[in-house]
Amino acid sequence: MITAARSVSSEESSARTALKLGPKSIAERLRNLVLETSPTMPAIERYTGVLYDPLDAREADTATRAWWDRHIVVQSAMFGPVGAGDLIPAYRLSHDSRLPGLRLISHWPAPAGSALATRRDGLVLDLRSEGYRALGPAPGAVALRVVSVAGDGRRKALNHWNKTAKGRLVALLGRTGAAVSTMAELADWAAAHGVVIEQVDGSWELVAESLGPAAV
């Protein structure tokens, strides 16, 4: 994977297409040329954006970080499943990147699925987007659907902002040191903290408003 990413990143023209880079982000291709020598940091700090910002990982206390290190696995397009505390360098690669001679959707499922299986212990929540979920199957995991509930009770699945709700949920799980082994226990834990997680028509749903208005 690293070899293929380095090859496609060596020229602007190939990197622009394969990594979907625009004029302002084209320099990010250079990260892939120095993966084996560039500085590293814990994955939970490396990633940014609406999913990770609610964690405020660098300011989290020791107990919260320890909980995340034990429980969180991030699906990386470059490195496969990585733990929250695993040290990784900066890189540029997404689940839908197109590398010459190597399809991520074909390369990752077997080794990633095997790695996830070795970490499996009890309840597994799958909060990944569909694209990243395809890179590493996790049989038996529970996918949590994020919804917004209108005043008349109608439910609407959220798109971009579902990431904020998921980030806030993971932040709260870590800060409270949650110890749950079933979805029923998770729902009870959530209710005790003012969060709504419930089963609707056979699927588990997280109500975004229960984690704050900015999540909607």
Using brief descriptors, characterize the structure shown.
216 residues, alpha/beta
How would you describe this structure to a colleague?
The protein is of the alpha/beta class. It has one domain (39-88, 103-215). Helix content is 34%, strand content 17%. The chain contains nine helices and nine strands. The strands form three sheets. Strands 5, 6, 7, 8 and 9 form a five-stranded mixed beta sheet that branches. It has a two-stranded antiparallel ribbon with strand order 1-4. Strands 2-3 form a two-stranded antiparallel sheet. Helix 4 crosses helix 8 (162-176). The longest helix has 15 residues, at 162-176. The two termini are 36 Å apart. The relative contact order is 0.13. The mean pLDDT is 93. This is Peroxide stress protein YaaA. It holds the Pfam family H2O2_YaaD.
Secondary-structure topology with pairs:
Layout: H1 2-9, H2 12-18, E1 40-42, H3 43-46, H4 62-71, E2 73-76, E3 80-83, E4 87-89, H5 104-107, H6 109-119, E5 125-126, H7 130-133, E6 142-149, E7 155-157, H8 162-176, H9 183-192, E8 197-200, E9 203-207
Parallel strand pairs: 5-6, 6-9
Antiparallel strand pairs: 1-4, 2-3, 6-7, 8-9
Q: Which percent band covers the strand fraction? A: 15-25%
Question: Number of DSSP strands?
Answer: 9
Low-pLDDT regions: none
Count of individual domains:
1
Distance between the termini: 36 Å
Short description:
The protein has one domain.
